[in-house]
Request: fold
Amino acid sequence: MDHDFPTIRLAAAQAAPVFLDRDATVEKACRIIQEASDNGAHIVGFPEGFIPAHPIWYYHYPATSQTSLDLATRLFLNSVEIPSPATDALCKAARRANCYVVMGLCERRAGTTGTMFNAQLHIGRRGEILGVHQKLVPTVGERLVHSSGSGHGMRAFPTDFGPIGGLICGENSNPLGVYTLAAQNMRVHVASWPHYFFPGWTKMYDTALLAGRNIAYMCKSFVINACGTISKEMREIMEVTDGDRDYLADPKSLGGSTIIDPFGRVIAGPAGPGEEIIYADADLTDTVRAKLVHDFAGHYQRHDVFQFKIHPSAPHAPPPAPLSDPSPKSEDQVTEASPGDGEQDEE
Reply:
């Protein structure tokens, strides 16, 4: 067996936050990271917005209600700056556990009193921050609290086991986003999902499974589908109507985490609606075997027919009132690159 393609253990952490309490949720995350490591995990994926919570109250309360305004204020006050003591604690936990962590969190721009992003924090096994992926376009109620993300983190991050990528919720169905990661030879993908979808939409279990299997098959990578769930406290807040109670009582409304291999087969899960960590052993040579048939960003693609560019260098929302006024790149300065060139523009 080639030492560059070992068998590693993947973990999907399906858990509820300590609702809108950053410090307590960070402590819970550190315990989960250690538990996963004790069970042999090399990579641990967490749900969307795990720290300190996802803004699901907009599914149940009017946006301008006092409840929504109070909860959104708590969300900002408990969101995470990068770097900060909260990320230091997560990095220390990853280093102690000797495993890679992809953490879903609400990121706030340092020094502001209002700008937040829906983000995935990628942490290395030595405790270093590898990078941050911000959700490019907020979805539904997220648009009331989250800004559009930067293209800088639309990439797979290098690890000892090859590139690891990730997307957040609806992004996992964005074909251009998925192709961007496929072109960077991603071996493991972390799909982060919220506590649950809004009532009246498809169930999270069904959508996460569909999108996760699609990514695995298209990218020929392993997929950690890390779905969220809720605590008793969260349920009591969100059960406003009988319809809410019925929806949250349906096991398929919550959880459903899975781990999927490069052939699109489910190799762990689905998890039930409650808290648990699921594990799967991933033979990374399967990423090679699968690409012998289809390498959609390589030999099974026609780069002379299709061309694709990304613009990753500049953030979507630059800081207000910058001290200088740098000239943006003109279109003729944007270069083209082959798949696998990381942060450069890709065909």
